[in-house]
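Researcher: I'd like a candidate sequence for this fold, 405 residues long. If you have to choose between options at a position, lean toward the conservative one.
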């Protein structure tokens, strides 16, 4: 009988292995990826896919998919394929979990594996992919880009695009493309890790399972690609990123550039694991007060404020100077947001007031000037001294600095 310590060691090894794959920046093996994806498609759909296409980034994958007929790469067909795959994997996991003698103990560790791997993996994996051309395309440029992409597709598929899709390809890449791709690789990797763990824990039961071939093909795909999307006739895969920056918590994060860079130059900006639209970094001068205040994500709002500059935000939002003394200046931007809950007819409101204290660095810059900083403080601050004291974790009476630095 496998002991609890042995199960725990197996759990830790599984988590380490699949987390390392999730954050890997090594280029994928295209031959191995195509072989694994083909095997998975056959097991899932019962037929060999017309083509397995491998691209350098999710952007390339989305733009390529835009050239296929909607009925082949329709969003609902992707959802149905994913639903079938997930259902069969979960059923297999349930059967394997019930095959052990100490079901209760093993089940607790199984749950720990799935949750730990998903938590570790979800942080570095980009959750959103935007496809926005760097500049508007003229008709000639768009047609040339389309021809180049079609040539790449046909080279990979080994046949003409027309015969592959039974459709006339779209000849323009000048507009944004949204195919509803969901970047759920962290969920797939979590399931693959659980399957890997269960298989190692109960090898005889895993081999005898009716979906053993499917689950084996699935774990192979997860180990070989950066992401994949499976349809009834076509499988689309993409490479891992070339560069991946993370914060100490393991989340995709970079302050001065892209957090993730793919081999075709596609970049994903992220802050503390939250996807940040590219334009916020590339065109900060275009950020407006209205955009910041209408943004739903607190992290995106924080980055927008930083890129716009607190001083500019306070000036353009006509923030109110509440108090000023030798410690600094207290600014407040009052704003109330109105919203409805469910089908309620009456509106409700919530306070979205922003408050900052402006302080001056006591050490001069090389040119003799003194740098100003804006620190976010709670909106109920009444004096500049109270706000500065709060940044030190002190009450206003307790804050008695002898020397400002």
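Model: Candidate sequence:
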């Amino acid at each position: 009988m496998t002991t609890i310590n042995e199960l725990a060691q197996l759990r830790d090894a599984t988590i380490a292995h699949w987390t390392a794959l999730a954050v890997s920046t090594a280029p994928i093996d295209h031959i191995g990826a195509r072989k694994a994806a083909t095997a998975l498609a056959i097991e899932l759909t019962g037929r060999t896919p017309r083509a397995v296409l491998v691209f350098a980034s999710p952007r390339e994958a989305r733009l390529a998919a835009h050239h296929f007929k909607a009925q082949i790469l329709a969003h609902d067909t992707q959802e149905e394929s994913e639903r079938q795959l997930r259902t069969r994997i979960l059923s297999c996991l349930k059967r394997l979990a019930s095959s052990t003698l100490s079901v209760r103990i093993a089940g607790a560790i199984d749950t720990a594996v799935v949750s730990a791997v998903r938590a570790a993996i979800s942080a570095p994996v980009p959750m959103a992919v935007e496809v926005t051309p760097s500049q508007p395309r003229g008709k000639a440029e768009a047609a040339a880009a389309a021809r180049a992409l079609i040539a790449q597709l046909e080279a990979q598929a080994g046949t003409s695009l027309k015969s592959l899709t039974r459709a006339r390809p779209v000849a323009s890449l000048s507009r944004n493309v949204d195919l509803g791709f969901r970047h759920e690789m962290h969920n797939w990797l979590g399931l693959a890790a659980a399957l890997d763990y269960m298989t190692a824990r109960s090898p005889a039961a895993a081999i005898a399972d009716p979906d053993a071939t499917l689950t084996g093909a699935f774990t192979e795909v997860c180990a070989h690609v950066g992401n994949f999307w499976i349809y009834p006739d076509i499988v689309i895969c993409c490479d891992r990123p070339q560069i991946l920056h993370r914060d100490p918590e393991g989340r995709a994060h970079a302050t001065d550039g892209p957090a993730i860079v793919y081999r075709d130059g596609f970049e994903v900006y992220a802050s503390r694991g939250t996807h940040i639209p590219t334009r916020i970094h590339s065109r900060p001068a275009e950020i407006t007060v209205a955009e910041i205040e209408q943004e739903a994500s607190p992290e995106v709002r924080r980055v927008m404020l930083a890129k716009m500059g607190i001083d500019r935000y306070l000036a353009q939002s006509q923030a109110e100077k509440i108090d000023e003394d030798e410690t600094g200046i207290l600014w407040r931007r009052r704003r109330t947001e109105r919203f409805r809950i469910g089908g309620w007819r009456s509106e409700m409101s919530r306070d979205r007031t922003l408050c900052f204290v402006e302080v001056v660095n006591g050490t001069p810059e090389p040119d003799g000037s003194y740098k100003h900083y804006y620190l976010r403080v709670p909106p109920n601050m009444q004096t500049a001294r109270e706000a500065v004291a709060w940044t030190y974790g002190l009450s206003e009476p307790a804050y008695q600095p002898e020397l400002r630095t």
